[in-house]
Amino acid sequence: MTFSMELTEEQRELQNWAHAFAEEVIRPAAHEWDEREETPWPIIQEAAKIGLYGYEIMATLRQDATGQSYPILCEELFWGDAGIGMSIMGTGLAAAGIASAGTTEQIFEWVPRCYGTEAEPAVGGFCSSEPEAGSDVGNMRTRARYDEATDEWVISGQKAWVTNGGVASVLVVQAVVDPELGSRGQAAFVVEAGTPGIVAGNRLKKHGLRASATADIFFDDVRVPGSALLGGKDTLDEKLARAREGERTGGQAAMATFERTRPTVGAMAVGIARAAHEYALEYAKERVVFDRPIIENQAISFLLADMAVEIDASRLLVRRAAWLGATRQPMARAEGSMSKLKAGRTAVWATERAIQILGGVGYTREYPVERMHRDAKIYDIFEGTEQIQQLVIARAISGLRLP
């Protein structure tokens, strides 16, 4: 299959559908939900009602052999608003965690539960980061102990920065099952958020993505059935045995998975950058200073031209990486990390420049570009910081295990 930016009829329909929802439903509500700092359940419900949110559409998009449908959806929704967009798309993190590690039975049982139903939509949360273990996953402290007498796992620890924390119905939890093995002694569990012993901390007051809930989750000797272990105990025991023998345990496969999911995050950043650019472009055409529109000044028009170039370049990297992932081709140069790194940088830069073009009014909450800038900054941080992306790329292009 040859890589192409030309959209199929189905992809074009998806793009138009998502864009219309973003324009007619998300954008008019963006300022309100940013100010309220609450989960926009009415918008999630509307998305579920029309089929734009739920297990069925997400499963369908993931089946696109070109890998383009999911980035297309993300770009359009985040063009509408990143905070609301994350409230809609954040469940995908938990769903991806189940799909990547779970058995077929676990996938079909739990992924639909992450999304709920059309009448009662739900959201899921992915619990990986900790106060002392973000980029350093080997420093994870959350423990899962197996109780053979009851065939239960007992989970204890604290998870940080959980998207949908406090509002999720289903949680995917990464925990250490063998501390001596470090990151190779970790496993993932799927847990109902209402299980006794699980407590969500206060919703964090964030710089951006304020419509999307983020909170710490505490696990106090939480007992879950043996079936909650994603992949099953036999698979885990085999993995641990290989690790104890010094063999590889799938760590390289995990990194390959990260490379394939990072373009989705990059597509979100592209949507934010594009929204800021379009707004600044229209403003520059209409804003008159010294008897002419400010776009007639090269300082403004050239800046807008540079923004267009950077956004298109970011989208190309995202789409290429998504295609490589969908077609199961090796990302020998860390193309997934390249796409996320470039798109995140572009979103932060383009939204800041949009504020500059608008001048003083761009710095106020009466105009959306300041919100876009606040939302953009996280794309230099989460899902692998800017510096972690640089490290992954440097290792890939050099062939060296750089520190």
TrEMBL record:
What catalytic activity does the UniProt entry give for this protein? a 2,3-saturated acyl-CoA + A = a 2,3-dehydroacyl-CoA + AH2
Query: Which residue intervals define the domain Acyl-CoA dehydrogenase/oxidase N-terminal in the entry?
Result: 8-114
Q: Which Gene3D superfamilies match?
A: Acyl-CoA dehydrogenase/oxidase, N-terminal domain (1.10.540.10), Butyryl-CoA Dehydrogenase, subunit A, domain 2 (2.40.110.10), Butyryl-CoA Dehydrogenase, subunit A, domain 3 (1.20.140.10)
Stored InterPro entries: Acyl-CoA_DH_CS (IPR006089), Acyl-CoA_Oxase/DH_mid-dom (IPR006091), Acyl-CoA_Oxase/DH_mid-dom_sf (IPR046373), AcylCo_DH-like_C (IPR036250), AcylCo_DH/oxidase_C (IPR009075), AcylCoA_DH/ox_N (IPR013786), AcylCoA_DH/ox_N_sf (IPR037069), AcylCoA_DH/oxidase_NM_dom_sf (IPR009100)
Q: Which UniProt keywords apply?
A: FAD, Flavoprotein, Oxidoreductase
Task: Please give the cofactor(s) recorded in the UniProt entry for this protein.
Answer: FAD
Task: Write one Gene Ontology MF term.
Answer: acyl-CoA dehydrogenase activity
**Organism domain of life:** Bacteria
**Pfam families under this entry?**
Acyl-CoA_dh_1, Acyl-CoA_dh_M, Acyl-CoA_dh_N
Q: Where is the Acyl-CoA dehydrogenase/oxidase C-terminal domain?
A: 250-397
Q: Where is the Acyl-CoA oxidase/dehydrogenase middle domain?
A: 126-222
Give the UniProt family note. Belongs to the acyl-CoA dehydrogenase family.
Return the protein name.
Answer: Acyl-CoA dehydrogenase
**Source organism of this protein record:** Dietzia psychralcaliphila
Q: What is the lineage of its organism?
A: Bacteria, Bacillati, Actinomycetota, Actinomycetes, Mycobacteriales
